[in-house]
């Protein structure tokens, strides 16, 4: 799967969209998850959970563990758990103003960068204004995400930078659901088809 490949909405792929977990999703790792889809094609999908905080891990601690020195204004920013796959692999999900050769534009002005050099730039104060640091990712094999969508496990919506980057991460699911036009209290924990 090529993360740099951008799909148009008419092709059925969800690159650049948000997945919002439905209450009946059985996997506790994705309870109330909001996932930014970085890649989706016939080979599978890859996304980053943007609202699950890794308890007790902030950006400054991570920089210390990697022996990266510097002073940044968002040093107390929580590190997010991007999903259960490759949980030691880091990603920076960010908006404009910061691009490196390795940065991939996934959606208009939303980028993913995953290099130590990017972390060093952030530590120097040269990083993006709006960013999330994420460890791990969510991955789906060919057809797996499509099957989950047919089972009504996820809602799909456009990627809204205010949902991704602003406010309390623990409130992003409620905000995403409301932006879709649904009252979270009206969602049922059981699935069905009409």
TrEMBL record:
Native source species: Micavibrio aeruginosavorus
Question: What's this protein's name?
Answer: UPF0301 protein HYS17_01885
Q: Return the InterPro entries for the record.
A: AlgH-like
User: Family per UniProt?
Assistant: Belongs to the UPF0301 (AlgH) family.
Upper lineage is:
Bacteria, Pseudomonadati, Bdellovibrionota, Bdellovibrionia, Bdellovibrionales
Question: In the UniProt record, which is one GO cellular component term?
Answer: cytosol
Which superkingdom heads the taxonomic lineage of this protein's source? Bacteria
Recorded hits in HAMAP family, A to Z, give: UPF0301 (MF_00758)
